[in-house]
Design a protein that fits this description.
The complex is a heterodimer of chains A (about 150) and B (about 100).
Chain A lengths: L6 H20 L7 H9 L5 H20 L14 H18 L3 H10 L3 H24 L7
Helix pairs in contact in A: 2-3, 5-6
Chain B lengths: L1 H21 L4 H8 L8 H22 L19 H12 L8
Classes of the chains: A mainly alpha (about 150), B mainly alpha (about 100).
């Protein structure tokens, strides 16, 4: 299932995500790394950090939920099967925990601080993801979506 | 405390709205970005591009102030070494993609 190329909405959404990173650094002085914030929540360690992390994740989901009906890009979402999502989730959780970051932590916040670790992380996960999709879609012909 | 949480909530809201507006809530849109030899949708480049520009300029201004508005210091990662965990972890993260649909 192809998706529409939407550079304008992409630019606008990116600006909002960038602003989110700046606001979190300006106020509480924290990195807006979604995987790390979410992972720390799952440890259920009810310390001082638990509250702000919960607030961030809940607000993020709320923001997406409230904006989705008005965002053309957020219609007709193509989700995976439950098994595929579970496999994907395991890989995301394990990988980002090892690498200490994902697309937001390394890709936006890390690169914005000119972190060489983040540059290596982004190049690695993008390259592996592109190769994986190529093999899955065009060599093995599985997971074509829809 | 309350201002800190207000800023955290505002950040989360902006992030979520940004994900919806840009279409990054749609796994298919990530997949079609990664599928460079198929029906390629380069939108993600524009999302990361503008996000990075805003974050880089914004961070510069925020760090110039010396400390956050509502905390005693910036909480920044201290690791600088490019080790196997970073590369292997990122590779595992990259292995995950929304292309497993039909399994």
């Amino acid at each position: 299932m192809p998706t529409l190329f939407t550079p304008g909405a992409g630019l606008l959404g990116g600006v909002l995500i960038g602003l989110a990173a700046v606001v979190l650094m300006a106020g509480p002085g924290r990195i807006a790394g979604c995987s790390g914030i979410f992972r720390s929540l799952l440890t259920l360690k009810l310390d001082d950090n638990f509250v702000w992390r919960a607030v961030f994740i809940i607000a993020l989901m709320l923001g997406a939920l409230v904006a989705a009906p008005f965002a053309r890009n957020a219609q007709n979402l193509g989700f995976n099967s439950l098994l595929a999502t579970a496999i994907g989730g395991l890989l995301v959780g394990f990988g980002t925990a090892l690498a200490h970051g994902c697309t937001s932590g390394h890709g936006i916040c890390g690169l914005a601080r000119f972190s060489s670790r983040s540059l290596v992380a982004v190049i690695t996960f993008m390259a592996v993801a592109i190769v994986t999709v190529f093999v899955m879609r065009h060599v093995l012909h599985i997971g074509t979506g829809g | 405390m309350i201002m800190r949480l207000l800023f955290t909530g505002l950040s989360g809201l902006l992030f979520g709205i940004g994900l919806a507006v840009s279409g990054m809530v749609n796994p298919m849109k990530i997949l079609t970005f990664l599928d460079i030899t198929g029906s390629w949708d380069p939108t993600l480049i524009f999302v990361m591009g503008s996000g990075l520009v805003v974050a880089t300029i914004g961070y510069r201004l925020v760090f110039a102030r010396g400390r956050p508005l509502f905390a005693d210091r910036f909480y920044l990662p201290t690791a600088t070494d490019i080790d196997a965990r970073l590369v292997i972890g990122s590779a595992i993260f990259g292995l995950r993609n929304p292309g497993y649909t039909n399994i």
